[in-house]
Amino acid sequence: MKTETKPEHEIDSSTHQKIHELLDACFPEYPSRTYFKQLPHLRRLAWEHGALVAQVGIDHRMIKNGDMPLRIFGIIDLCVAESTRSRGIASQLLVEIEAAARSSDVDAILLFADDPRVYLANGYQSVSNHVKWLMINDHETLGIAEKPLGEMMVKMLSGEPWGEGVVDLLGYLF
To answer: Model confidence over 97-117: pLDDT tens digits?
Structure first.
């Protein structure tokens, strides 16, 4: 298996089609495009014998956790093809993302999980802060929301503890 990180703007149309097919297979309610609300900055892609077997979007941004600004990687839509699940591919992608985050002085990795098991197994913790974000739906800004959200998970890399205050995403919900 080969993995690579690609800036979103460098992904060709053939690869975008493969990403769309994988997202559609993994998330049946997914829109007919390669992103849910907004394009990620980067993607980590896993290939096996020329087939895309896993992908994850990465949003690099600043957020605010209580009074503390944090440089984060936001994990978006991690998915693995059904035929290659339970082989550690998702964990491998998370390890590679963490290595890139550490070498880039990222303070934390943040995500919202439907199923937290792979993240818990990779050292992420569930947190229950209120979250403030820019509401976007079908390419339209709807306003600002603030409330607790499902399974928010974080892995602190800076050595600082995660705070209990409001998490301001300073943008859309990834």
So the answer is: 999 999 999 999 999 999 999
